[in-house]
Request: fold
Amino acid sequence: AECGLPPLAWYDVLWALRRAPDRRLRLSELADSLTVSRGGATKLVDRLAAQGLLEREACEGDRRGRYAVITPAGTEFLRKMWPVYKRVLEAALTVDDAEAAAVANALAYPSTSSEFSPAADERTTSASARASSAGG
Reply:
């Protein structure tokens, strides 16, 4: 990890907890909010708990359920990680004009098939208009 910091997945876990109501989530909810499996989330929680960045708490009324709760040290760690995380996001999301145009085009016309291109629509419309005027 950059600058002596752990993987960015740690930031994702801590940020999810920081923005959650009461700064805690059930472990199953935390896993669902991440792009990792439940087993992967459990391992991340274990690592973060070992560093004192979060704690596990029992869920009232559910003996098997557990919450992951961010600690003050976890909140401070988020502040320390943010500048690095921000740089990674900016690098990943920065595009030039040509890339932006390609993305916009791909989103506007989801298929690369000529059947669904704007030119195909124009050809179909023109052909229909010619057929209508010829027959009528």
Q: What stands out?
A: Helices lie at 8-19, 27-33, 38-50, 72-93, 97-108, 118-135. The chain has a mean pLDDT of 79. The two ends are 72 Å apart (CA to CA). The longest strand covers residues 62-70.
